[in-house]
Amino acid sequence: NQNFLTTMKYSLSEIKGKHHSMFCLPEVVNSSAYSDFWKDLRDGKARSGLFRRIAKGGIDVYLEANYLPIS
């Protein structure tokens, strides 16, 4: 949504078709916690909390977010 794009300092065309991992540090992407995060979503489980993400230009952003599985 537009709020996410504004917060992360990207346009839709810059992120469309890209994987969520582009917003995470490599050590997060390579962690078991990140694998578990995606497994939970695949299994139909929602995830909520405070998540550290990386905006355009390498800026740290902390998002209070809800991730919901799509079925």
User: CATH homologous superfamily?
Assistant: PAS domain
In angstroms, what separates the terminal alpha carbons?
19 Å
* Quantity of strands, as a count: 2
The stretches of 5 or more residues where confidence is low (pLDDT under 50) are none
What is shown here, in short?
This protein has helices spanning 2-8, 12-15, 26-29, 32-42, and strands at 47-55, 59-67. The chain is of the alpha+beta class.
Q: What keyword list fits this structure?
A:
single chain; 71 residues; alpha+beta; Beta-Lactamase; 4 helices; 37% helix; globular
What does this protein look like?
With 71 residues, the chain is an alpha+beta fold. The chain has one domain: PAS domain (Beta-Lactamase), CATH 3.30.450. It is 37% helix and 25% strand. The protein is built from 4 helices and 2 strands; from the N terminus they run H-H-H-H-E-E. A two-stranded antiparallel sheet has the order 1-2. A hairpin with a 3-residue loop joins strand 1 (47-55) and strand 2 (59-67). The chain is globular and about 30 Å long.
Topology:
Blueprint: H1 2-8, H2 12-15, H3 26-29, H4 32-42, E1 47-55, E2 59-67
Antiparallel strand pairs: 1-2
